[in-house]
Amino acid sequence: MASPINVKLLLIGNSSVGKSSMLLRFSDEQWLPEDEASATIGVDFRVHKMEVKGKKVKLSIWDTAGQERFRTITSSYYRGAQGVILVYDVSNRESFDALPRWYSELETYVSPSVVKILVGNKLDKEFSRQVSTTEGAEFAARMNSLFLEASAKTAVGVKEAFQEVVEKIMETPELWAPVSPATPDKGGKGKGRPSGSSMANGGMPGSINLRQDSEDASSAGGGCSC
Ligand code: GDP
């Protein structure tokens, strides 16, 4: 039986935009009431199995677990990701204005072929919306990203966001079925090993200590001197 394709997804975006809530909603079909959620330390990792276009996919989805509050997201967090979900809060302009910074981090740390989706979360807060759908969609198009609005609270759009990224990844085989450098002409499908670069770089639960790599950001990344 074919082993599943391993896919590593990341959630990034400003603090409090709802990244952990989206992950909980997607993987555990759970929603923590607002007051409880803010008291809970972010989720940091979830594995989720799904089937896309007849292919079994094992998603490992990483959440920043609050690292972004200290501006210390490290290169190891980004390493090996095939998809990135960039989240802002439609009722918080600042979280939208911060997106160029998040995109420039991506430029530094992930390959250009990585699939990106921009998600405007908290769609249920329509009454206090500060970023229009059109604005979000236009920005996403400029940044070569998919786009969707969602609500972790009502569940609208959440599953779709994950599904869309994974579908796009599946349409981009170079992201998950790397051809071995030794056999460039054989169209190798990476059989015999779980394919996907995520496993080659520690995409398994507990195998990365996000904190220990803080100095790594300058050596492995694009020379960030922060
Ligand atoms: P993170 O810091 O980006 O991981 O954000 P959290 O998931 O911790 O959410 C921050 C706050 O926003 C919490 O109080 C959540 O309950 C709330 N929140 C998250 N998603 C939504 C949403 O879709 N709608 C509403 N109204 N609140 C949300």
Automatic annotation (TrEMBL):
Pfam families according to UniProt: Ras
- Give the molecular function GO annotations: GTP binding; GTPase activity
Alphabetized, the UniProt keywords read: GTP-binding, Nucleotide-binding
The record's annotation in SUPFAM superfamilies points to:
P-loop containing nucleoside triphosphate hydrolases (SSF52540)
Domain of life, per the record?
Answer: Eukaryota
Which residues lie within the region annotated Disordered?
Answer: 176-226
Q: Which PANTHER family match?
A: RAS-RELATED PROTEIN RAB
Please report the name of this protein according to its UniProt entry. Answer: Ras-domain-containing protein
Q: Which organism is it from?
A: Rickenella mellea
